[in-house]
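Title: Comparing notes on inverse folding

I've been comparing how different people in this forum approach sequence design from structure. To keep things fair, I'm posting one structure and asking everyone to reply with a full sequence. Here's the target:
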């Protein structure tokens, strides 16, 4: 009789622990869901500052940012300068644009001069140094910030730049992208594009 009571007690204890574990798991999942909901609503508490670096190990030098913009419209640093050190710039500003149809409405998130809808993702770092190439940059940014007149698509962009110093690989920069839908919207007919305002100028006369 005592042995049977002990078995009942063990089964009851096991059931209790299982339910407690399930409750904890559900609570953790609900917490993560709440965080994601807050992110999708643009409630970002803090973000890294917007920043830039310059790829300059090859013959093509160019500024890159952590908010979807390329080249320097003010020409204070190299903006598709080729060959590097020549003071000949071939880009005013380049920008990443992503568009999609959401619930029948055409929406776009973009980096446009003076109106940047991408911002560095909270907790991300701006890596710049050796990696897949001689000189990598690695950034994460998203369109979740609250801006007047902008409806976010709910995208997070993981961007890596690759540049080399050796011949046959030194006059171009490669960009790799992973674009993730972190929102709660279904995106149809997604298009990714790069707007490049290519102008020939010098550091001394950006106009």
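Reply #1:
Here's my take.
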């Amino acid at each position: 009789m005592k042995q049977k009571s002990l078995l009942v007690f063990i089964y009851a204890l096991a059931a209790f622990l299982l339910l407690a574990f399930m409750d904890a798991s559900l609570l953790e999942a609900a917490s993560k869901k709440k965080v994601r909901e807050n992110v999708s609503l643009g409630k970002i508490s803090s973000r890294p500052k917007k920043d830039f670096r310059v790829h300059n190990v090859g013959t093509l030098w160019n500024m890159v940012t952590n908010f979807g913009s390329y080249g320097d419209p003010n020409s204070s640093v190299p903006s598709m300068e080729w060959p590097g050190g020549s003071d000949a710039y071939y880009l005013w500003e380049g920008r990443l644009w992503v568009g999609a149809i959401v619930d029948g409405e055409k929406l776009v998130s973009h980096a446009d001069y003076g109106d940047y809808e991408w911002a560095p993702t909270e907790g991300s770092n701006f890596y710049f140094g050796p990696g897949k190439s001689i000189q990598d940059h690695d950034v994460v940014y998203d369109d979740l910030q609250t801006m007047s007149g902008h409806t976010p698509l709910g995208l997070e962009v993981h961007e890596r730049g690759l540049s080399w110093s050796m011949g046959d690989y030194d006059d171009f920069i490669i960009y790799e992208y992973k674009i993730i839908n972190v929102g709660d919207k279904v995106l149809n007919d997604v298009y990714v594009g790069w707007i490049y305002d290519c102008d020939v100028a010098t550091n001394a006369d950006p106009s």
